[in-house]
Amino acid sequence: MTALLAGASGLIGHEFLRLWDGPGDIHLLLRRAPGSTVPGQQVHLVDYRALPALPAAEEAFCCLGTTLAVAGSQAAFRAVDFDAVLAFANAAHKAGVTRFGVVSALGARATSGNFYSRVKGEMEAALAGLGFASLVVARPSWLAGDRAALNQAPRLGERITLAVAGPLSPLIPAAWRPIQASSVARALLRAVRQAQPGVRVLTSRQMQGM
Length: 210
Fold this sequence. Notes:
This protein is an alpha/beta fold. It has a single domain (about 5-210), classed as Rossmann fold (3-Layer(aba) Sandwich). The protein has helices spanning about 10-20, 70, 75-95, 115-130, 155-170, 180-195, 205-210, and strands spanning about 5, 25-30, 40-45, 60, 100-105, 135-140, 145, 180, 200-205. The longest helix is centred in the middle third of the chain and has 21 residues, at about 75-95. The chain is globular, with a radius of gyration of 16 Å.
């Protein structure tokens, strides 16, 4: 089994690679060369604005994503969370992928009045129209994980939320409770492997239980 992964350098993508156990190779689409790889990982340096033909694969996972604060503008945010995701999905579909998993966000809705949630919802709708036999959409709440270990700048909103929510976690409904990036990666991998036909949405509550 061969797989494609976009966003391997991010919080969820990094956890996904730790969980990946094959069989077969996993092809990593990266914008910069990684410090190291392990056997079974094939690196492809790409520009998502002009993706080349991708290696043939059965499944693909997309962990691309940023925030408005990190991106710096709505246009820059959309270029990552919609344009790059859709470009990868299109290329993966042409490469023979039938099972596709993507990380979205809690509250994603194409008709939302919130720009972030609307772009995520539009991205989900666009992927649903590509014709994958099985599409899994993960909608996590606030992510918990060690960004410093990945040399990533802390996200202020995420840091404040985690600091406040930590002591109150047992009182917060599971749908809104912060979730470990490793839990999202594990749930996405498991759900894609189950190959449920059509579109399957994983809520944060469901992923915590998986």
